[in-house]
């Protein structure tokens, strides 16, 4: 997994040596200023960043090479940092502020789904304490989600930081703000540690998930503060062995597994552990959402120690998701949801239904556990309810509102 200790040591060395103009090169530090970055926040510095990256990545003699982004402002057009690299580990140290282009035209002819991408790298350590500013308001203003009748509206906007096919890597101590769409995307990765991030975007910014994980294994996500316009953390298809803990979430849509199986594809999600989550004013608490047309499974998910303040749907499973909400027809297929537990949920719900388990008649939810749940309404002397449809399991240790699970 990641090398946070190494980054701390390197940060100290950088601080000590930046004042010595020539000495830091012997420490295998690759300062983007030495490769032509202007750092005025106006001129595109992506070519200088790529030159520094290439020098660090391809240097056969550098041990723990470190690309350094000093404490200045850097405008970057869309860029991909590619591996594999010569060294066992490579560090990307952000001390300043990286700014996205404000105009969507910077992506013309390029992949509109990404801004800063890291691909095919083993031992990558991205660390702060700098900032990554997506400046996404132009994208939000033409989003099809909120402007469906706008001619030329966009369904796909850039993710701020995307890790693709990376192994044994880390992302830590970064401040993310105002991504055009998802802030952090982990795709086709193995052995990633994400820690000590803050992620912020307006509550009404479309599709600005905090962290999304897709087709990846063996992740640790810890100590994250997230407030956005979509899921704080979401788990996608073909993902397993994920530990998520110590999360502050709100505003946003909570912690989600899904949505899964939208294209009718097979889903495989298992061994997801989520604990110590603090939710404030979110749409959901813990949610699993699958499309009716999908198949496959979600199994072995644990949600525990959730502390809810004014949460609309603290516990929710929706196995009947379709394109026209409220008009879903029963299908003879679906994603099997089994062995899922919700325990130690406390706090307040802002709607009447605190537990809503909407499962398929064809492929019911099984092995569901509700344990030690104490949820109250934000309305004085108002009782909450639970609704279960085709949801089978059992309850332990006191559940309020009362469990509706079928045995």
Query: Low-confidence parts lasting 5 or more residues at pLDDT below 50?
Result: 16-26
Please name the fourth-level CATH homologous superfamily of the largest domain: Single-stranded right-handed beta-helix, Pectin lyase-like
Our count of domains comes out at 2
Any idea of the CATH class of the largest domain? Mainly Beta
Shape summary: elongated
| Main sheet: strands, sense, barrel | 18 strands, parallel
Quickly give the CATH architecture of the largest domain: 3 Solenoid
Determine the number of helices (DSSP H or I, runs of at least 4 residues).
3
First-to-last CA distance: 41 Å
CATH topology annotation of the largest domain:
Pectate Lyase C-like
Instruction: Calculate the mean pLDDT score and round it.
Output: 94
Summing up helix and strand content along with how strands pair, one would put the structural category as mainly beta
Radius of gyration using CA atoms only: 22 Å
Instruction: Note the beta-strand portion.
Output: over 45%
Secondary structure tally: strands: 29
Helical fraction: under 10%
Detail the topology: elements first, then pairings.
Elements: H1 4-17, E1 29-31, E2 40-44, H2 46-57, E3 66-69, E4 73-75, E5 79-82, E6 90-94, E7 97-99, E8 114-119, E9 124-127, E10 131-133, H3 137-141, E11 159-164, E12 167-172, E13 175-177, E14 184-187, E15 190-200, E16 211-214, E17 217-227, E18 233-235, E19 239-249, E20 255-260, E21 266-280, E22 284-291, E23 295-311, E24 313-321, E25 335-349, E26 353-358, E27 365-377, E28 385-389, E29 391-400
Parallel strand pairs: 1-3, 2-4, 3-6, 4-7, 5-8, 6-9, 7-10, 8-11, 9-12, 10-13, 11-14, 12-15, 13-15, 14-16, 15-17, 16-18, 17-19, 18-20, 19-21, 20-22, 21-23, 22-24, 23-25, 24-26, 25-27, 26-28, 27-29
């Amino acid at each position: 997994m990641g090398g946070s200790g190494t980054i701390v040591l390197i940060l100290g060395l950088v601080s000590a040596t930046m004042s010595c103009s020539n000495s830091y090169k012997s420490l295998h530090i690759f300062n983007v200023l030495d490769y032509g970055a202007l750092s005025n926040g106006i001129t595109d510095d992506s070519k200088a960043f790529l030159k520094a990256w290439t020098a660090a990545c391809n240097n056969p003699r550098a041990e723990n090479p470190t690309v350094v982004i000093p404490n200045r402002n850097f405008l970057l057009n869309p860029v991909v940092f590619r591996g594999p690299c010569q060294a066992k580990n490579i560090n990307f140290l952000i001390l300043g502020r990286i700014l996205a282009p404000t105009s969507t035209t910077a992506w013309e002819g390029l992949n509109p789904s990404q801004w800063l991408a890291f691909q095919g790298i083993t031992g990558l350590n991205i660390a702060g304490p700098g900032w990554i500013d997506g400046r996404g308001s132009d994208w939000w203003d033409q989003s099809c989600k909120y402007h469906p009748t706008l001619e030329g509206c966009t369904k796909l906007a850039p993710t701020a930081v995307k890790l693709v096919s990376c192994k044994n890597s880390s992302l830590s101590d970064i401040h993310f703000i105002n991504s055009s769409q998802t802030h952090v995307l982990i795709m086709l990765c193995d052995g990633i540690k994400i820690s000590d991030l803050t992620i912020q975007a307006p509550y009404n910014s479309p599709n600005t998930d905090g962290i999304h994980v897709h087709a990846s294994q063996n992740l640790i996500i810890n100590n994250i503060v997230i407030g956005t316009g979509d899921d704080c953390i979401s788990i996608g298809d073909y993902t397993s062995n994920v530990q998520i803990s110590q999360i502050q979430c709100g505003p946003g849509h909570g912690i989600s597994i899904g949505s899964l199986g939208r294209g009718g594809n097979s889903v495989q999600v298992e061994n997801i552990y989520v604990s110590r989550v603090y939710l404030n004013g979110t749409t959901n608490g813990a949610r699993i959402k699958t499309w009716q047309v999908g198949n496959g499974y979600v199994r072995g998910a644990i949600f525990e120690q959730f502390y809810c303040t004014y949460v609309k749907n603290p516990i929710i499973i929706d196995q009947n998701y379709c394109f026209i909400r409220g008009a879903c027809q029963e299908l003879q297929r679906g994603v099997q949801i089994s062995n899922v537990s919700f325990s130690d949920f406390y706090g307040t719900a802002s709607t009447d239904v605190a537990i809503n388990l909407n499962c398929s008649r064809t492929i019911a939810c099984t092995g569901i556990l509700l344990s030690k749940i104490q949820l109250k309404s934000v309305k004085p002397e108002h009782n909450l309810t639970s609704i279960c449809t085709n949801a089978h399991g059992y309850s332990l240790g006191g559940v309020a509102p009362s469990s509706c699970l079928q045995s």
